[in-house]
Amino acid sequence: MSQRFFSRERFLGEKAIVVYFIVLKLIVCLLPFEYGYFRDELYYIAMSDNLDFGYVDVPPLVPLFLAGVRFFLGTSFISLHLLPAVCGALVVWLVYLMVKELGGGIYAQLLALMCVTLAPIYLCFETVYTYDAFDKLCWTLLLYVLLLVLKTGNRKYWIYFGIVAGIGLMTKISILFLGFGICLSLLLTRERKYFLCPQLWIAALLALLIFSPYIFWQIKHGLPALEYYKNYATGKTWPSTPAEFIKNQIVVLNVLAAPIWISGIYYFIFNSNGKKFRVIGYAYFIVLILCIYKEVKFYLPAPFYTVLFAGGAVCFEAFASRHNFVWLKRIPLAAIFLMGIVSVPFVRPVLPVDVLMKVSGRGVYMGVKGERQRIGRLHQHFADRFGWEEMAAVVAEVYNTLNENERSKACILTGNYGEAGAIWLYGEKYGLPKPISGHLQYYIWGTRGNSANAVISLGIDIEKLKEQFDSVEQLAHLDCDFAMNYERYLPVYVCRQPKKSLEEMLQAFKHLD
Length: 513
Known about the structure:
Distance between the termini: 63 Å
C-alpha cells in the first residue's frame, strides 16, 4: 500500500505536475505582503455596494462576484485577491488541457505551464481585483473551445463557445477583439464552412442574450460607454508605436519565453501537425494588428498568448525529441523559471517599499507604459496603492473643523474615482459621508440628495472650484511620496457660497475617461 501511495506516477506524473504549478500560482498570487488597495479595487468595492446591470466602463459580472466575496469573506486583501488567483490557477489547468489536446508530452506541459504560471503580465492580472484576471480566463476558455472545434469538428462546441463569449462580454467587452479575430480568420480559411452550421448562429444569439442586460442598461443611461471609450483612447491610453507595442509583448510575457510563443505562431500556421488549427494563428495576427491600429493598452491581447504557449511548447518538444537535443529540454525550463521568479518583485508587492525604490529603476518594466500620466517614484502598478487611507484621514480632519450645522449638510466632492473610492472605503471609519464625483460611475450615481452648502473637495483644480463657489479655502493637504505625481501633493478645500445647485455643478465636473 505504501509503495503504491509513494509511486512515481502519483508525485511526478502529469496530473501531479499541473497541481504543483497551480499551487505555485496560488502561492505567488496570494503572498500576504501588500502596500495597499489598488486604485481600481476601491472602485470595484464601491460598485459592489451598488449592484446594477451595468456601469459606465464596466459590465456587471465582476462587481457582482466581489459583492459575493465580501458577503461571505468580508473586505480584506486576501478576500479581494482570492478570485483573481483562482482565475490564474484555472488558466494553468486549461493550458495543460490545451497541450494534451495538441498531443504534447510531459516536457511540453512543463514548458507551457512554466511560461503561463510566471508570466509577469499574468501575475499583474492575478494579484489585483479588476476584470483583467476574469477576462484572461474567458479568452483562454474560448480559445480552448475553439481548439476542440478545430480538432474534432464537433459542432456542439460552438454552443459552449457562445455561452462563454456571453459571460466574457459581461466581464469585459474587449473580448470583442478576440471574437472579431476568430470570425475573420474563419473566413480566411476552409473553416468558413462553420458559418453554414446552425450551431454557430445559435452561439451568437446566446452570447447576445447573455450580454443583453448590459446593452439595455447602456441604452437607458444614454450609452455612456461610447463617450468613455472615445475619451479613453484619445486622452488616456499611451499611444504606442507598432514597434513599441510588439516590444512590450515580449517584455511583459517574460523575455526568455518569447521563443516559445513565437514558436506557437509558427506551429499554428506552418507546422504540419498544427496547420489544422491555422485559424488560431491567423486570429492572433488579426487581434494584434487591430490592437495596434486602435492604440489600445499594450496588455489587451495578453490573454491570447496562453494558447500560443501551448502550441509553442508542443513544437519545442517535437523539435528537441527529433534531434535528440537534451539541453533544449532543460535550459529553456530553467531560464524561464529563473527569469519569472526574478520578475515577481517588479509586478507585485513582495519587497519593502524602500528596497523596491532602489531596484525598480533597474527593471525592464519601468519603460512599459499603458497611460499618458507621468510616472512618479514608483511604477503606476505600485504607486496607485499608496495614500488612500491617509487621504480619508486628512479629509476627516477637515470635516471635523466644520461647525455642527455645516457638518450635518457637508458633502465630499472628488476629482476622480480613486479619490472617491478612498473616501468610500475608509470614510466610514472616520464618520465621513459617502463621496460624490463627476468621474465615471460616480457621475451616474449623482449627488445622492446632497446640497452644495458646504463642500469638502480634493483632486479638483482650484480655478474650477472658484467657478462654482464664491468662497474656496484650502484647509489641509495630502502629501504622499509614493503616489502618482498628480496625487503626491493634494490640497483639500472647503467650498462655500455656491453659485449653482450641486446637480448643475456635477455637469461641470463630469469626465468619462
